[in-house]
Amino acid sequence: MQKLRHFLKPYRKYVILGPLFKLLEAIFELIVPVVMAKIIDIGIAERNASYIGWHCALIVLLGICGLGFALTCQYFASKCAFSFGTDLRGALFRHIRTLSRTEIDQIGTSALITRITTDVTSAQQGVNMAIRLGTRAPFLIIGAIVMTLLIDCRLSLIFLVIAPILGFVLYTVLTRTIPMYTANQKQLDGISRHTGETLDGVRVIRAFARQEQETAKFREECAALEKSMIAVGRISVILNPLTFLIMNLGIAAVLWFGGLQIEAGRLSQGDLTAFANYMTQILLAGIQLAGLIQILTKAQASALRTAEILETQPSMQNGTETPLPSDEAISFDHVNFAYADAGDPALQDITFTLRKGQTLGIIGGTGSGKSTIAALMQRFYDPTSGTVRLYGKDVRSYDMQALNRSVGFVPQKAVLFTGTVEENLRMADQNVSPERMREALEIAQASEIVRKLQFGLQTHLVQGGRNLSGGQKQRLTIARALCADPEILILDDSTSALDYATDAALRKALRTRCTGMTKVIISQRTVSLQDADLILVMDDGRCIGMGTHSELLASCGVYREICEAQGA
Amino acid sequence: MIPALRRLLHYTRPYLLYLILTVLCSLIGVSLSLTVPVYIGQAVDLAVPAAETGSIDLSAILSTVLRLACVVGISTLFQWLQGLCINRLAFGTVKDLRTDLESKLQKMPVSYIDSNARGDLIARVIPDIEILSDGLLQGFAQLFTGVVTIVGTLFFMLSVNIKIAVLVVVMTPLSLLAASQITRASHNAFVWQSKLRGELSGLTEELVGNIGVVKAFAYEDRAEERFEEISRKLGTAGQRATFFASLSNPTTRFVNGLIYAAVGTFGALGAVGAMPWIGVMTVGDLASFLFYANQYTKPFNEISGVLAELQNAVSCAQRVFEVLDATAPDEHAAQTLPAEGRGEITFENVSFSYNRNKPLIRNFSMHAKPGQRIAIVGPTGCGKTTVINLLLRFYEIQDGRITLDGISTADLKRDDLRRQFGMVLQETWIFTGTVAENIAYSRPDATREEIEKAAREAHAHSFIKRLPNGYDTVISDTSGLSQGQKQLLCIARIMLTDPSVLILDEATSSIDLRTEQRIQRGFEKLMQGRTSFIIAHRLSTIRSADLILVMKDGNILEQGTHAQLMRRGGFYAELYRAQTA
Predict the structure, then answer these.
(1) What is the pLDDT of residues B58-88, one digit of tens each?
(2) Residue B447 class from Cβ within 10 Å (0-12 exposed, 13-18 middle, 19+ buried)?
(3) So what's the pLDDT on residue B289?
(4) pLDDT tens digits, B213-270
(5) In the CATH scheme, what is the homologous superfamily, with its name and number, of domain B345-580?
(6) Where are the domains of chain A?
(7) How confident is the model at residue B380 (pLDDT cuts 50, 70, 90)?
(8) CATH of the domain spanning B1-161+296-326
(9) Are B392 and B423 spatial neighbours (Cβ–Cβ below 8 Å)?
């Protein structure tokens, strides 16, 4: 929690006042047994009815005040915790924005999502409970001991013995079981994953007639989980009976030694009742404390993980310049690149230049480095050595948002966002004119799709477009990139789900209607690249052929091989 | 609720002994623990110096205290035993339910699994059963202990002093009222909170999961705005829900305090004799009453908590039983296949549709002679994959007949039928396990040499060698293998088998062309002497087929060899020219 402390700063008032009010409640709670002792010792002994009446009214008054204080504390605690959580969540999101792809790849998006959702919630819960119980429980335990010390210091020795034993029991059981619970959770996650896998592979499993073996494997996993659940249960189940035992043996001791003290004239009957009462309070506070420790351990782990993200520094520095189109649109100058944590370089010595309005084609097998070239153009990564230039200037000198605005990108995986079709098309530029939008849809061969949708542009896309086919999604993502009328358009294998006729129509529209636009087309199909001004043939991170279609047919064996395989 | 409980009770039958022991132990443990305040009261009463001697009866106190210790010890023992028994009962039942559910899913038709959301089915197997166990089994135990505690407390209070006991009972609704008011107030806030939480995690998943796209479109500012907006709303909702929920503890303490004060007042007044109608009461009686009053409201709170959980658990149980009650198709095997399959397949006037209103395949007929190579081509959604679904009986035909070696497939056991086929599907399936285990899935008894040979034929050997632990590397669907590599593993899987019919459904769609050509040789070998069905996007890969079925809208539009179809100049020729233009 230490590392996230400054997130609590704006709410310092709550952090201090919350526990304070809780403390007041606890003090009032501690006074009640003393008042009851007085009722017994004075009220009953002297047969004074009005004394009894007044003191009982006092107990009710203490209760009302205690309730008021407690509610104030609960309010402060929830206010503080949830403001803290909201701030932390926002900070995480803003920080993730600044990270480059290298860091995001390393951390993994699923981990980032968990930090923002689950971990923030658990840290928030930690703050909430710490304010509510962090002072109350220890105070009640110490307070009860102090009160008994005031009544009779010899008898309170029992408390000094009982409290550490109770603490020891709680500590031992919890420290033993928490790691076991974590391990069990992992086992359960494994079973969950297995269930998912058998659902995904239902056809394969049945095709090989392996249903019974799958069930047997599943049964084994469940039995293993049962075993470890029982193992941890065996320890945790002892906690409640044991605390019950300790507390009541404590009471028994109080009664016996209290009797001796009364015999010696050092203690009253009412005090004895108060002692027994305090014993119960200590137990209840101890159990609360144990729960609090559990929550705080979880919160601490979450806080550490969250802080780790916040401490990750972006590996790329943002530039300041805005791209100004010039004739030399894209150039790579002896570019080498390796992904972090990967041994082999993904790109080796790539050099080429593309003029404004020209089309670049990139072809090659899976993992040959095609998409990496596109990623470097948009500065998702920085090259290990060499320079990537846009409009004659190093991409590192540009402001990244400005850079991204001038480059339109259609990713390999067609991703649409929840919202209407129109909202998706306006993603890059909120103020796209309806004419431009219509034009973009036409070029992307997507007008027909929108027309067929029930509510046209206002159709709501469910879960990022799950109600559309792959080809429809691809065409909409192309339209989305075209809407902002970018200087440079990158199509990263983004026509794979289109049939050949649509693909051809799309290419023709791009050629005739976007003449000033510089285009980068990555594809597995040679037909898609035939008209490109420059084609790079990639193989294992190297460029093994460069030129136009006819040049490559003459000079590059691999290219020829690919063309032949595709029947061209 | 009752039927769900009865069904669950049925599942606890193997653990009946534990169930009985749980009830017994909790009965003994709780009753004994309830006598503790009685002994405390006795001891307090004994701690009064006798008027004549001025000293107290220490030996009487000692024997009371010892009896107290004994009762506490025995009660502890039984409470502990109860915990152990309930664990066995709950965890065992969970295991049985889960296994039954999984084996039921394995028996359900593919259509059932296709038509239910994956996440929803997993939810039934994992969290639903977990909630069911917490709510119905452990919750039930809590409910039982709670009721015993309340009844026991009332009994002991009544036995000490009827009037004051009645007073406590009269005040009970106060506690219940407070609890129900708080639950109602917080319930709405919680519903609101969980709705917003779902929204926020959906949005986070979308925005952070696709951060690359967000950045590429310079969409970060508006993404942040959207995020902040929901995040703030969630903050407010969460604060409200938590605050309302946190009212319950102090309020209960307050109500408890009121009961405590009331018991104190009337008890003390009774003890001094100011209110004769209360009856005789000693200080010890008062002390034990105060103890009872202190723990009296606790079970009420627990029970109201359990009841809320119980509702949730029952709805989960219903979801679980829903799957268990679904009717699995019955297997009647009228016939068996000869040991040596020839692989002759006919479709005779087959009709099928996924949706009754939208007919897909109508009067589909074809004949594949043993050893023939059949290619199926056509635009997306024309029914190519459906033909495979029907052939393997993943779905049942609605009309017509499909035969394998002259026997109607409907008369065969599904597993026997499927054993005749080897297939590679477009959608790869890799499970968590080693590379070797994944390949050997088709034949678990395959030796390492055979596995490596299959991998070599599928051209997967070289990339497997480069993995950290080679064939022993643990992989999963999300472990970073490319789609192409996964397809290679699935192809290796099939290279291990010896089926009489081979099905390749877009088996090489994610593999680059050069590798595909190399694998082709492996396929050629595998297809030798076997009937094979090939579905492919790239028409160049199927030119050599013996029979090409051109499908459109669920029907066969044209059929023939490549040369015949090209000569005909129909739909196929058009498709082919478009691809190679």
Answers:
(1) 888 899 999 999 999 999 999 999 999 999 9
(2) exposed
(3) 83
(4) 888 888 888 889 999 999 999 999 999 988 988 888 788 888 888 888 888 888 888 8
(5) P-loop containing nucleotide triphosphate hydrolases (3.40.50.300)
(6) 2-311, 328-416+485-565
(7) low
(8) 1.20.1560.10
(9) yes
Chain B residues 295-354 with CB within 8 Å of chain A: none
Q: What's the confidence (pLDDT) of residue A481?
A: 92
Q: Report the residue of chain B nearest A39, measured CA to CA.
A: B268
**CA–CA min distance B258, chain A (Å):** 6
Out of B58, B95, B538, closest to residue A223 by CB: B95
Q: Give the confidence band of A343 by pLDDT, cuts at 50, 70, 90.
A: low
CB atoms under 10 Å from CB of A435, counted, come to: 8
Residues of A in contact with B517 (CB under 8 A): 565
Paired residues of A330 in beta bridges = A354, A390
The CATH class given to the A328-416+485-565 domain equals: alpha beta
Would the pTM of this model clear 0.80, i.e. be above it? no
Which member of B105, B218, B538 has the closest CB to residue A405? B218
User: Mind giving me the DSSP string for A324-361?
Assistant: ---SEEEEEEEEEE--TT-SS-SEEEEEEEEETT-EEE
Class of domain A2-311: mainly alpha
Q: Among A94, A540, A315, which residue's Cα sits nearest to residue B220?
A: A94
Taking Cα atoms as reference points, which of B74, B219, B18, B34 lies closest to residue A404?
B219
| Contact flag A562-B200 (C-beta cutoff 8 Å) | no
Q: Is A49's CB within 8 Å of B269's CB?
A: yes
Burial of B176 (0-12, 13-18, 19+ CB in 10 A): middle
Q: How many helices (H) and strands (E) does chain A have?
A: 21, 12
- What's the pLDDT score for residue B383? 77
**Residue B155 touches chain A, beta carbons under 8 Å:** no
So what's the pLDDT on residue A466? 66
B272/A44 CB distance under 8 A = yes
Specify the pLDDT at position A29: 84
Do the Cβ atoms of B102 and A195 come within 8 Å? yes
CB B507 within 8 A of CB B428: no
**Which residue among A74, A199, A471 sits closest to B246, beta carbon to beta carbon?**
A74
Surface-to-core class of residue B117, CB atoms within 10 Å of its CB (0-12 exposed, 13-18 middle, 19+ buried): exposed
Cβ contact (<8 Å) for B208 and A242?
no
User: Would you state the pLDDT for residue A33?
Assistant: 84
What is the per-residue DSSP string for A479-517? Answer: HHHHHT--SEEEEESTTTTS-HHHHHHHHHHHHHH-TTS
Interface test with A, best of B106, B294, B417, B508 (most A CBs within 10 A): B106
Dihedral, A219, A225, A231, A235 alpha carbons, nearest 10: -140
d(CA A388, CA A521): 18
User: pLDDT, tens digit, for every residue of B494-541?
Assistant: 988 888 899 988 877 767 767 777 778 788 888 888 899 998 777 767
Query: Tell me: the pLDDT tens digits for B410-421?
Result: 888 888 888 888
Q: B36 at the A interface (CB within 8 A)?
A: yes
Q: How many Å apart are CA A197 and CA B122, to the nearest integer?
A: 10
> Which amino acid type is present at position B259?
I
**Which pLDDT band, with edges at 50, 70 and 90, does A225 fall under?**
very high
Distance CA A543, CA A332 (A): 12
| Domain-wise residue ranges, chain B | 1-161+296-326, 187-280, 345-580
Determine the pLDDT at residue B580: 63
CA torsion sign, A126 to A128 to A134 to A140? Answer: negative
Contact A86 B75 (CB under 8 A): no
Q: Which of A140-154, A210-224, B299-313, B553-567 has the lowest mean pLDDT?
A: B299-313
Whether residue B92 lies within 8 A of chain A, CB to CB, comes out as: yes
Q: Which of A67, A133, A149, A250 is nearest to B261 (CA)?
A: A67
B262 CA: distance to closest CA in chain A (Å): 8
